Amino acid sequence: MPQPANFQPFSTEHLVTLGILACLCGLVGWSAKRFSPAQADVLGRILGISLVAYVVTVYLERAVAGELRWEDSLPLELCHWVLLACIVALFWPNRLAFEIAYFWGLGGTLQAVVTPDLGQGFPSWNFIQFFWAHGTILLAIVYLAAARDLRPDGGSVRRMFLAVNLYALVVGSIDLVFGWNYGYLRHPPLQPSLIDYLGPWPWYILSLEGVALLSFIILDLPWRFRAKRKRDLVDSRLV
Q1: Where are the domains of the chain?
Q2: What is the predicted pLDDT for the residue at 69?
Q3: Dihedral Cα 108, 111, 112, 118, nearest 10 deg
Q4: Which H or E run includes 197?
Q5: Long-range contacts of 170-173 (CB under 8 A, 24+ apart)
Q6: Predicted model pTM
Q7: Rounded distance, CA 170 to CA 180, Å?
Q8: 3-state secondary structure at position 10
Q9: How far apart are CA 94 and CA 86, in angstroms?
């Protein structure tokens, strides 16, 4: 059986996958707005179950293959925390889980699907698993923003920026002690990514700080504009 070709960023298979994912995001957002509350809850549970199934599948496969290793099997990647936040917010909605999913997810997971750290392309199982996880995270974020009464508030950007720095401090310390590379805090990914344009280690970590803060501010803008429009509409009715 022929082996899948090496993954090439922005190849036809990559662009088609991104196109399908964009269409699914639009469909989930449209459905979440138009479904009844009961139907929307079912959609949220389906997304949550898909993420749980991904986690179970990955760990079972690694356990059977004897590939559970300290250096790459612990839930210490940023995407792992986003995935956990999505699961929590889908089953037990709360603001903190939504903020982590929204700011970290769109700030990090979106970049991950645009520049994946993949060795093989479609139809390799690695390719399918990657987009299963990252794609469902993005679908979950769209669903949470459209269906749940969860919104960032005025302190969200500050909280999430402090939280991502706390993550980098804790996980970076663990990487340094054990020689691991969770969060790409000791060296960049092997495949081309945004990090390649942010300078050598450790300076790209400081560059990522700026990128994260700018991303969080941009992601917060739609909610600030929305809140301002509501205030202006209320004020115009009072005049």
Answers
A1: 12-238
A2: 92
A3: -150
A4: none
A5: 171/76, 172/205
A6: 0.87
A7: 13
A8: coil
A9: 10
